[in-house]
Amino acid sequence: MKKSIGNKKIKTAIFISGRGSNLKNLIKFSNQISSPISIKLIVSNNKKAKGLRYADQDNIEKKIINFSNPIIAEKKILSLLVKKKIKFICLAGFMKILSKKFINNYKGKILNIHPSLLPKYKGLNTHKRVIMNKEKFTGCTVHMVNSKLDSGKIIFQKKIKVLKNDNEKKLEKRLLNIENRIYPIATKKFINFNL
Length: 195
Ligand code: GRF
Fold this sequence. Notes:
- The protein has helices at residues 21-30, 52-57, 70-83, 100-105, 126-132, 168-194, and strands spanning 10-16, 37-44, 61-64, 88-91, 110-114, 137-144, 154-161.
- It is of the alpha/beta class.
- The protein has one domain (2-194): Formyl transferase, N-terminal domain (Rossmann fold).
- β4, α4 (100-105) and β5 (110-114) form a beta-alpha-beta unit.
- The protein is globular and about 50 Å long.
Protein backbone atom coordinates (compact mmCIF):
# COMPACT_ATOMS: atom_id res chain seq x y z
CA MET A 1 0.00 0.00 0.00
CA LYS A 2 1.23 3.53 -0.76
CA LYS A 3 2.54 5.45 2.25
CA SER A 4 0.33 8.38 1.40
CA ILE A 5 -3.10 6.79 1.57
CA GLY A 6 -5.61 7.77 4.28
CA ASN A 7 -4.34 7.56 7.83
CA LYS A 8 -1.13 5.95 6.60
CA LYS A 9 0.39 9.38 6.18
CA ILE A 10 3.67 9.80 8.02
CA LYS A 11 3.24 11.79 11.20
CA THR A 12 5.52 14.78 10.80
CA ALA A 13 6.81 17.64 12.95
CA ILE A 14 8.12 20.92 11.57
CA PHE A 15 10.63 22.99 13.56
CA ILE A 16 10.71 26.75 12.96
CA SER A 17 12.15 29.92 14.47
CA GLY A 18 10.74 32.74 12.36
CA ARG A 19 8.76 33.75 9.30
CA GLY A 20 7.54 30.28 8.34
CA SER A 21 7.15 30.55 4.56
CA ASN A 22 8.51 27.03 4.15
CA LEU A 23 6.23 25.80 6.91
CA LYS A 24 3.25 27.38 5.14
CA ASN A 25 4.05 25.51 1.96
CA LEU A 26 4.71 22.23 3.72
CA ILE A 27 1.29 22.52 5.38
CA LYS A 28 -0.31 23.17 1.99
CA PHE A 29 1.51 20.14 0.62
CA SER A 30 0.51 17.91 3.55
CA ASN A 31 -3.13 18.83 3.01
CA GLN A 32 -3.10 17.27 -0.46
CA ILE A 33 -4.68 13.82 -0.50
CA SER A 34 -1.68 12.33 -2.26
CA SER A 35 0.85 13.82 0.15
CA PRO A 36 2.85 11.25 2.14
CA ILE A 37 3.00 13.42 5.27
CA SER A 38 0.57 14.69 7.84
CA ILE A 39 1.82 17.55 10.01
CA LYS A 40 0.93 16.85 13.62
CA LEU A 41 3.23 19.21 15.49
CA ILE A 42 5.00 22.52 15.03
CA VAL A 43 7.91 23.26 17.35
CA SER A 44 9.41 26.72 17.78
CA ASN A 45 12.19 27.97 20.04
CA ASN A 46 10.82 31.47 19.53
CA LYS A 47 7.43 32.45 20.90
CA LYS A 48 7.33 35.42 18.52
CA ALA A 49 7.91 33.35 15.38
CA LYS A 50 5.53 34.70 12.73
CA GLY A 51 5.18 31.21 11.30
CA LEU A 52 3.27 30.08 14.39
CA ARG A 53 0.15 31.68 12.94
CA TYR A 54 0.04 28.89 10.32
CA ALA A 55 -0.33 26.39 13.14
CA ASP A 56 -3.37 28.30 14.40
CA GLN A 57 -4.84 28.69 10.91
CA ASP A 58 -4.64 24.96 10.27
CA ASN A 59 -5.37 23.79 13.78
CA ILE A 60 -2.05 22.07 14.18
CA GLU A 61 -0.64 21.60 17.67
CA LYS A 62 2.23 24.00 18.34
CA LYS A 63 4.79 23.94 21.08
CA ILE A 64 7.13 26.74 22.08
CA ILE A 65 10.29 25.42 23.69
CA ASN A 66 12.70 27.62 25.58
CA PHE A 67 16.24 26.76 24.56
CA SER A 68 18.06 28.57 27.37
CA ASN A 69 19.01 25.07 28.48
CA PRO A 70 19.32 23.05 25.25
CA ILE A 71 19.56 19.68 27.04
CA ILE A 72 16.27 20.21 28.83
CA ALA A 73 14.73 21.68 25.69
CA GLU A 74 15.63 18.66 23.59
CA LYS A 75 14.36 16.27 26.28
CA LYS A 76 11.01 18.07 26.26
CA ILE A 77 10.81 17.96 22.48
CA LEU A 78 11.73 14.28 22.34
CA SER A 79 9.05 13.26 24.79
CA LEU A 80 6.52 15.27 22.79
CA LEU A 81 7.60 13.63 19.55
CA VAL A 82 7.22 10.20 21.09
CA LYS A 83 3.82 11.08 22.54
CA LYS A 84 2.62 12.32 19.15
CA LYS A 85 4.14 9.29 17.36
CA ILE A 86 6.18 11.56 15.09
CA LYS A 87 8.23 9.62 12.54
CA PHE A 88 9.68 12.40 10.40
CA ILE A 89 10.96 15.94 11.03
CA CYS A 90 11.48 18.91 8.71
CA LEU A 91 13.57 21.83 9.91
CA ALA A 92 12.31 24.99 8.24
CA GLY A 93 14.29 28.02 9.32
CA PHE A 94 15.00 26.47 12.74
CA MET A 95 17.88 28.49 14.19
CA LYS A 96 19.08 26.07 16.86
CA ILE A 97 21.65 23.36 16.33
CA LEU A 98 20.35 19.99 17.47
CA SER A 99 22.67 17.72 19.43
CA LYS A 100 24.10 14.48 18.09
CA LYS A 101 22.10 12.66 20.76
CA PHE A 102 18.84 14.21 19.58
CA ILE A 103 19.59 13.54 15.92
CA ASN A 104 20.45 9.90 16.65
CA ASN A 105 16.92 9.40 17.94
CA TYR A 106 15.67 10.34 14.48
CA LYS A 107 18.61 9.13 12.44
CA GLY A 108 17.92 9.46 8.72
CA LYS A 109 14.55 11.01 9.42
CA ILE A 110 15.31 14.74 9.63
CA LEU A 111 15.49 17.09 6.64
CA ASN A 112 16.59 20.71 6.47
CA ILE A 113 16.45 23.40 3.80
CA HIS A 114 19.42 25.68 3.33
CA PRO A 115 19.70 28.77 1.12
CA SER A 116 22.90 27.91 -0.76
CA LEU A 117 24.35 25.33 -3.09
CA LEU A 118 25.79 23.09 -0.40
CA PRO A 119 28.53 22.17 0.31
CA LYS A 120 29.25 25.82 -0.46
CA TYR A 121 28.20 28.47 2.04
CA LYS A 122 27.22 26.51 5.11
CA GLY A 123 25.92 28.54 8.05
CA LEU A 124 24.42 32.02 8.10
CA ASN A 125 24.38 35.03 5.74
CA THR A 126 24.65 32.92 2.62
CA HIS A 127 23.30 35.55 0.19
CA LYS A 128 25.59 38.25 1.54
CA ARG A 129 28.61 36.02 1.07
CA VAL A 130 27.49 34.93 -2.40
CA ILE A 131 27.20 38.59 -3.50
CA MET A 132 30.49 39.56 -1.86
CA ASN A 133 32.32 36.75 -3.62
CA LYS A 134 30.72 37.66 -6.96
CA GLU A 135 29.43 34.15 -7.49
CA LYS A 136 27.77 33.52 -10.86
CA PHE A 137 25.35 30.97 -9.42
CA THR A 138 23.67 30.23 -6.14
CA GLY A 139 20.72 28.09 -5.09
CA CYS A 140 19.10 26.14 -2.32
CA THR A 141 19.48 22.66 -0.96
CA VAL A 142 17.32 20.17 0.89
CA HIS A 143 19.55 17.81 2.84
CA MET A 144 19.45 15.19 5.54
CA VAL A 145 20.47 16.40 8.98
CA ASN A 146 23.49 14.85 10.65
CA SER A 147 25.56 16.07 13.56
CA LYS A 148 27.68 18.43 11.42
CA LEU A 149 26.17 21.77 10.40
CA ASP A 150 24.60 21.74 6.91
CA SER A 151 26.60 18.64 5.98
CA GLY A 152 24.13 15.75 5.61
CA LYS A 153 23.38 13.93 2.37
CA ILE A 154 21.94 16.18 -0.32
CA ILE A 155 18.43 15.22 -1.41
CA PHE A 156 17.54 17.99 -3.82
CA GLN A 157 19.19 21.12 -5.12
CA LYS A 158 18.08 23.99 -7.33
CA LYS A 159 20.61 26.27 -8.97
CA ILE A 160 19.90 29.82 -10.12
CA LYS A 161 21.91 32.59 -11.77
CA VAL A 162 23.03 35.55 -9.70
CA LEU A 163 21.90 38.55 -11.76
CA LYS A 164 23.96 41.69 -12.33
CA ASN A 165 21.70 43.93 -10.24
CA ASP A 166 21.11 41.38 -7.47
CA ASN A 167 21.65 42.39 -3.88
CA GLU A 168 21.20 40.36 -0.72
CA LYS A 169 17.48 41.20 -0.41
CA LYS A 170 16.61 40.54 -4.05
CA LEU A 171 18.44 37.25 -4.04
CA GLU A 172 16.81 36.15 -0.81
CA LYS A 173 13.35 36.94 -2.16
CA ARG A 174 13.89 35.13 -5.44
CA LEU A 175 15.40 32.12 -3.78
CA LEU A 176 12.79 31.88 -1.05
CA ASN A 177 10.10 31.35 -3.70
CA ILE A 178 12.14 28.49 -5.05
CA GLU A 179 12.77 27.06 -1.58
CA ASN A 180 9.04 27.10 -0.90
CA ARG A 181 8.47 25.15 -4.11
CA ILE A 182 11.22 22.57 -3.73
CA TYR A 183 10.86 21.60 -0.06
CA PRO A 184 7.65 19.65 -0.66
CA ILE A 185 9.09 18.08 -3.82
CA ALA A 186 12.23 17.02 -2.00
CA THR A 187 10.22 15.68 0.92
CA LYS A 188 8.10 13.53 -1.36
CA LYS A 189 11.18 12.22 -3.14
CA PHE A 190 12.96 11.50 0.15
CA ILE A 191 10.02 9.65 1.67
CA ASN A 192 9.41 7.56 -1.43
CA PHE A 193 12.98 6.34 -1.44
CA ASN A 194 13.84 6.24 2.23
CA LEU A 195 10.92 5.85 4.63
C1 GRF B 1 15.09 29.88 4.61
O1 GRF B 1 15.87 30.68 3.78
C2 GRF B 1 15.76 28.56 4.86
O2 GRF B 1 16.50 28.09 3.78
C3 GRF B 1 16.68 28.87 6.01
O3 GRF B 1 15.96 29.78 6.82
C4 GRF B 1 14.99 30.45 6.02
C5 GRF B 1 13.65 30.21 6.64
O4 GRF B 1 12.63 30.93 6.00
N1 GRF B 1 17.12 27.69 6.70
P1 GRF B 1 11.10 30.69 6.41
O5 GRF B 1 11.01 30.89 7.90
O6 GRF B 1 10.74 29.28 6.01
O7 GRF B 1 10.32 31.72 5.64
